[in-house]
Amino acid sequence: MSSVKCFRVFLLLSLLISGACSTTGRDSIARYSPQQLQQMGEKFLAAGDTAQALKCLTQAAKKRPSDPWIQYYLGLAYNHRGMQNEAVAHFNKALALKPDFSEAQNALGALYAEQGRMDMAQLCFEKALANPFYETPHYVHYNLGRLYERKGDQEAALKEYREAVRLFPAYGQAYFRMGQILEGMKRGDEARRCYGKATEFAPDLVEAHLRYGIMSYLAGDLEPALYSLNRVTRLDPHSANAEEAATYLQRLQTLMHSKEAASTSSAVESLHRVEVISPPDIQRMEALPDQADASANPPYSMERKSAPPGLSGQTGPAGPEKPSQPGQQWDYIVQVGSFFDKEVAEKMGEKLKSRGFGAIVRPVRHQVLGPIYVVQLNPVDSLDKANTLMTQLGKELKGTPVIIKVPASF
Questions:
Q1: Can you give the pLDDT at residue 12?
Q2: Which candidate in 27, 64, 110, 308 could, as Cys together with 34 as Cys, close a disulfide (CB 3.0–4.6 Å)?
């Protein structure tokens, strides 16, 4: 089932449930079982409708007061509502009913940490990890990492994040925090690799794209720089992040085959007319686990089994392509790679030509590193054709290829 169809089904379900849980009276909601009410409450909570979630979960708790999971979800709902005292009470009640309830221990620890009660938070996290049957300990290791960061112990934080990604290799948020620490330690190559992993597993995490894009630019790795910096301007437009990304994109304008003047104003304008497409955008997340990070960068993680915060089950493309202006024609340029050595770039170009590809080598000047040689294929007039070229290239590709979508008038 497509992501759009799934969304429509969920929306219809939500509307039907809303009619039962809203103002139609106690009898309409009382006919549901505690399990049904809990499931309804979870769905509303995942959708961000905390008021309806609390109505359903409160009714479920009245029908089954000894259920620790209902108390746990009530704690999540109250915490989401900003009512931390009530959240603490429900987490503690869940733990009284189920002492080895690691999810509740983690949630309580995260709440204490947000309040600055670090010793109590750490005790909760340690209790959660003491349960050998805990299914999602990577959340706790992430939370411990954030806690150690606040305490100023960067090495201990790094150790916890590494354990988190060992247990759950697609944990983009943990990779991002690792990148932040390693960059602060002046370990640039390691930091950039971590930021790259963060953008892979959390494709909408703006801060990760910004740091990865800047560090890739400074390293002369131009294709991922183009992609990530361009993505920042699209995910978070009109922000300080977008302004910083645009500064570096202006330095990369010559790589976009632009015929416009090189003035600052025209460069900024052209950024809104150029789109950089990476292979992950074409087949988004098909090889990833069902749980993958979303864009937020929460200070601490509390898990929901049906829809964990900080994780989403997005399996489709990043989003539908924006409609073109009437009469607008587009070209798609496959940029194969960038090289410091002119001879290596020219050999790559000749090799591609010998295999029937229309390749060109374009010399550009990197503001920091000096001359760089970019290998591109001749423009084609559709994304499908560009995708076909990418497939045909196969093992000929070096570096991280991208497709640059530009107005045909460029």
A1: 41
A2: 64
Two tokens, residue 147: 């806690």
Per-residue confidence (pLDDT) for residue 362, from 0 to 100: 86
- What is the pTM (predicted TM-score) of this model? 0.76
Residue 26 and residue 59: Cα distance in Å, rounded?
9
Provide the residue type at 136 as one letter: T
Q: Angle between the 68-80 and 50-63 helix axes, to the nearest 10 degrees? A: 160
DSSP-derived 3-state class of residue 361: strand
Report the C-alpha gap between 133 and 49 in whole angstroms. Answer: 31
CB atoms closer than 10 angstroms to residue 151: 12
Locate all alpha helices (DSSP H) within 98-239, ordered by sequence.
102-114, 118-129, 137-151, 154-167, 172-184, 188-201, 206-218, 222-235
State CA 181 to chain mean position distance: 19
CA dihedral of residues 176, 211, 115, 87 (deg, nearest 10): -60
Locus of tokens 């959240």: 87
Q: Could you tell me how far CA 161 lies from the centroid of its own chain?
A: 17
Phi and psi at residue 292, to the nearest 5°:
-140, 145
Question: Residue 55 is encoded by which pair of tokens?
Answer: 């109505």
Is 337 within 8 Å of 375 (Cβ atoms)? Answer: yes
- Dihedral angle at the C-alpha atoms of 96, 100, 103, 109, nearest 10 degrees? 70
Contact between residue 144 and residue 125 where contact means Cβ atoms under 8 Å apart: yes
Torsion of CA 181, 184, 186, 187, to 10 degrees: 10
For residue 143, what are the contacts with CB-CB under 8 A and spacing of at least 6?
Answer: 106, 109, 110, 113, 121, 125, 300, 301
Instruction: For tokens 């977008």, name the residue.
Output: 242
C-beta separation of 203 from 318 below 8 A: yes
Q: Name residue 373's amino acid.
A: Y
> Is the distance from CB of 105 to CB of 95 less than 8 angstroms?
yes
What are the average pLDDT values for consecutive 10-residue runs of the chain, which has 410 residues?
A: 44 47 55 92 94 95 96 97 96 97 97 95 97 96 97 97 98 98 97 97 96 94 91 93 92 59 44 66 46 56 54 32 58 86 88 88 80 88 86 69 77
